[in-house]
Each structure stands twice: as C-alpha cells, then as structure tokens.
Amino acid sequence: HQVAESLEPLADDDPGVVNSRVLGTVQVATTDAVINARLLRNLAEDGVISSVAIAAVLWVSIFLSRRLTRRLDQTSDVVRDITRGMYRRIDGDGDSDDEVGLLAKNINSMIGTMEEAQIEIENHLQALVAARDDADRANAEKRAFLGQISSEISSPLHEINIHLQSLLDECVLPAQRHQIDMALYHVDYLH
Q1: CA atoms within 13 A on the CB side of 22
Q2: ∠ CA(179), CA(182), CA(185), 5° rounding?
Q3: For the whole model, what pTM was predicted?
Q4: What is d(CA 7, CA 29) in angstroms, rounded to the nearest whole number?
Q5: Which residues of the chain, if any, have pLDDT below 70?
Q6: pLDDT at 119
Q7: C-alpha distances in angstroms, 67 versus 74, 100, 126, 160, 182?
Q8: 10 contacts 17 by C-beta, under 8 angstroms
Q9: Residue 88 burial (C-beta neighbours within 10 Å; 0-12, 13-18, 19+)
Q10: Do 111 and 88 form a contact (C-beta atoms < 8 A)?
Q11: Under a CB-based contact definition with an 8 Å cutoff, are residues 6 and 27 in contact?
Q12: Radius of gyration from C-alpha coordinates of the chain
C-alpha cells in the first residue's frame, strides 16, 4: 500500500495508481505492484503458481540436461576416436570449471601426451627402418665380397692342393709326409 497524508493527494490519473480512496485524512492508493502481489497470492492459493514454478524448473532442468548431454556426447565421441587411433581434442569444454570441463581438460591433456608419444614412436620407427636398410645393404655387400673372394681363393687353393698331392706322391721321408698332410688338411678346410 502506498500511504500519503492529505498534504499531497494522489490523482486517479497517475499511471501507477489503479484505485485511490480517501479515508479520513489519509488517502490510500493501490498500485500495480500491490495488485500483482495480490494476484500472485491468489494464484498461489489456487495452485497455479506451483504449476508455473514446476514448469519453470522443468524447463531449466531440460535446458541444463541437454547442454550437459551434448557435452558428454562430444566427450564420448572423442574417446571413441582415441580408441580408433584418431586424436582430436574436445572443443570449448576445457574452459569450464565443472566436472565435465575438468574431464575435457584431462582428456585434452592426455591426447597431447599421446600425440607426443606417437611422434616419438614414429621417429624411432623411422630410425629402425633406416638401420635395417643399412644392415641389409651391408649384408648384400658382404655377400658380394665373400662371393668374389671365394672364387678368387678357390682357384689358387685348388692349385695348391694339386701340387701338394704330387709332392706327397714323391715324398719319402715321414717328417715331410707329415708336413704335406697338415698342409692338405688346411687347404681342404679352406676350400
């Protein structure tokens, strides 16, 4: 209620005044706020205000759950991609300090660590491939060298073997025979 003494009477054409009456020396005026308060009190008594409050709470809860569900769905999609070897970060949730935001920050941090590890693994793999290629080249060169040396050594060893056999046939002393047998044994071993 707005109460004023007769010093300053309120006019009925005042936009804030809906109804005014003079009661003795006191003028009582009813404003929009008073009517709204009475209306809300009447609505509450009729149960309408509780329905409106329930509807408002439901709307807010649906809005928040959709927001939360959307963020959790995005987080789930990113985690599913990680299991497939595709690294992508969660957009925007790293700025939030709620549980989903902290989860997103931790997942994004984990993805960063995994990307660094992946790069390191790829670098080591490239080094291993290069080392294997170098070893393959060295083995090929070794085989070529041994193949060439083998034929270059084989012919002279064959000649030595023939000469030692002919010496053995002509030799009469046992000490000479023993020396020639040892030489033939080593030539056969190398051949």
Answers
A1: 10
A2: 150
A3: 0.42
A4: 14
A5: 1-50, 92-95, 191
A6: 93
A7: 11, 11, 44, 93, 94
A8: yes
A9: exposed
A10: yes
A11: yes
A12: 52
Q: Is 72 exposed, middle or buried (0-12, 13-18, 19+ CB in 10 A)?
A: middle
Q: How far apart are CA 189 and CA 183, in angstroms?
A: 10
Tens-digit pLDDT profile for residues 40-75: 666 666 665 567 777 777 787 778 777 777 878 888
- Entry field: residues in the chain: 191
Angstrom distance (rounded) from CA 4 to CA 31:
13
DSSP line for the chain = -EEEETTSPPPTT-TTEEEEEEETTEEEEEEHHHHHHHHHHHHHHHTHHHHHHHHHHHHHHHHHHHHHHHHHHHHHHHHHHHHTT---PPSSGGG--SHHHHHHHHHHHHHHHHHHHHHHHHHHHHHHHHHHHHHHHHHHHHHHHHHHHHHHHHHHHHHHHHHHHHHHHH--SHHHHHHHHHHHHHHHHH-
Structure tokens at 189: 């071993």
Phi and psi angles of residue 175, each rounded to the nearest 5 degrees, phi first: -65, -40
Query: What residues form DSSP beta bridges with 22?
Result: 27
